[in-house]
User: Fold this.
Amino acid sequence: MVRYFCCFFLGFFILSLLLLTKCIGQNKPGWKIHQPSLRTKWADDVRQNSSIDEYPRPQMRREKWQNLNGIWNYAITDRNSNMPSHFKGEILVPYPIESALSGVKRQLLPTQVLWYKRRFFISNDYNQRVILHFGAVDWQASVFVNGKDVGSHTGGYTAFSCDITEALEKDSNELIVKVFDPTDQGIGPHGKQALNPTNIYYTASSGIWQTVWIEKVGINHIKSLRINPDINNSAVNVVVLGSSVDCLVEVTAKQGKKVVANVEGKVNQNIVLPIRNVKLWSPETPFLYDLEVKLKKRDSIVDNIESYFGMRNVTIQKDVDGFERIFLNNKPYYNLGALDQGFWPEGLYTAPTDKALAFDIALIKAMGFNTIRKHIKVEPARWYFHADKIGILVWQDFVNPNQGLPDGSRNEFEKQVKETIDQLYNYPCITTWVVFNEKWGQYDQKRITEWVKKYDFSRLVNGHSGELLYVNDKLRSPSPNAYEGSDMTDVHSYLYPRMPPYLTGKVRVLGEYGGAGAAVQGHLWDDLAKGWGYDSINNLKSLRNKYSAMVDSLVVLKKEGLSASIYTQPFDVESEQNGLITYDRKIVKIPFDTIQAINKRLVIQDNNNWIGKVKLSLTTAREDERSYEELLTEYKKGRRDSFFLRSLSILAQLNGNKIDAKELSDEYLRLVKNPLDQSNLKFIIKFTKSTDDIGFWILYNNMLSVNHVLGKDQAEAILTGIIENRHVTPFVSNNNVPKWDDILQTVKRKYGKLGEETVLQAQVLYAVDHKDWNLFKTCAPRWFDEYGSNRFWVGNDLLNNIAWSAFEHSLDRDVLETALKMSKKTLQIDQPALRIDTYANILYKLGRIKDAIMWEEKAVESKKGADDEAIYIEILNKMKNGKATWN
Assistant:
């Protein structure tokens, strides 16, 4: 009996252990938010099975749809790799891969491709088409269903759809999306996204960043609408674009449940709906009519959608004083605006929830603004829906082309301009298109502006916001033809407002002003950065006084004919600390009632409905921050919590107290529990100057983990710089020839392969600088083959400069062959004329004349029409005539 019970309990224990192990395996943790340096309150509402659930296209709603947001699998491969066989990671769609909410928080490089995969279930019904929709994918997307290519799209800001009917299998289907996004290294518009964000440029948002969904439609279905209100004739014009012209449409306008107008017409033809007793749309009264559209064939309804419209117009007219003004609904309407970037600390381009998306608009309105300039970003459709419902005017920027205007960038820009207008045409909130911002990729302004005005005659067009840019009363970018084709003359003036020039028939607007910075400790994206604004960081009382003075200036300018002003900006964004509200949407820097009262000096609007909804979510920042000396006294009395030590370390460094900064930062790093998260790694980098610092060894002993957080090779880049500064620089900074063998042995003994790499790189740069080509021959091939050709941080510019110097100053074939390998490496990703020219010249000097001429012809072609085209033509002619190109 005892033996029986022992066996029974042993068996029961083993069975329980197996069951427990199985349960643990089934419930292993999946997606979770990567801890961002800041987060808004809505981050807590994001769930892996319910991220963004709202129907994504409010202006063309169908009752039945399938949301594909949620957990997908992902993989990252080299750009030229085939579709991966394994997708190991999980990502939450629709948040960019660089964002904390994606669960990945990883940079996508221009040399890489991002792959998404998920399964979905749908029945393929007879006589129906299945349409797969993407709100936006940045930048180039290829879509595969069950291994079949079903469509592609280029452009990171506009929606696209694929008919996947023919690729579907019964019930279960596999969806794969391939994404290439070079951000600011490519030819596509990228706005303020940057691979190396700083100052006014922010973290990139790659991949799927808006909702993905599926709809079933009939073979005959409605594809889109174009709605034009005509308040002067009490009517609204509707064009229904359909998949077939062999259909009729019935269009019904409603006010609540009451039918206002009901008219039948034909597909693709204008249908006029008379609207009696018109209720106008404006920020003060944002009334929207409901719109129902039915597609009919042989008296049967084959498709049915719901939409809405607002009755308003926007024009330029003269007021009673003879000034050209912006008129809304045939009355002068001063546009008091804020420059909204549309970034979020945890979601980057993607707001954490739909409620968060609406909150920003409501908050801006509640502060007393009636206009938002949406700055070089196109938002999801629901943002404009909320702007329509809440009631605020929108100046919509087109997303600028790559500022360097590489080949193909102009076509991509103009394609996206048209797609943006088509996508946003029906939203009454949008009253102005902004073609170019300052000199960010500006070209052919008159032609493009006039095309936009012709394509959309219902809105104003600001052809060039900030062509005249003043900073501290100094003009940075004068231009004699700044406003050709535009409805406006527009200047940017930082800090204080100024009047734009007068031109007959054009309204005068202040496209940007303000930008005064003020930091709120504990609410900073990067507490290690000084923070960026158009002046030195002010205390909060100074910010309030400056803002009040700016509005006083605007009151005067308004009386003199100014029609609009756009303040920079409502929210801090990453390193920019020039918002009225902190980046996490928690702290208002100027008391809320004070901002409202100041703005009412310019415009008075009934915004009480929104004040109560947003005011409770905000706390007013303190104006009485303690001094560094007071905080240091607290430290000496024994305060040692980690947040305090971190903040005090940063203040010590800002105050130039190097000894205090080292002592405090070392103490902080001894306490910190997770030194390898992004925020702490940035702290380590900021305070690590020597191989003796604690931070150096944290980085050295965790290089793989550091690179996983910061990006490829970043640990090595930081460490080699510190090692070189300590062990190499002192021996090459005088006129003596360095004893390279002794240096190499010493450094390699202490730091292994990383030490060897440091010394070899230093040798190469020394050899180039001193034109010591014998030394170059001994170190450069080894450095490049083992290190330089593989390191992401060894940039193309550095390699090109080394190769060019060798070409110019050496006749040695071994030197030139090494330089050629370096030059060839710089052409792998992109091929600008300057680097093509280097490669061609080295080929020519090596006697490979036919190849050299072919490459130089490429350089000439890429410079066609540029100011320096003649230089490349001259080099090409020398090559063809057998003359030296290196004299």
The mean pLDDT is 90.
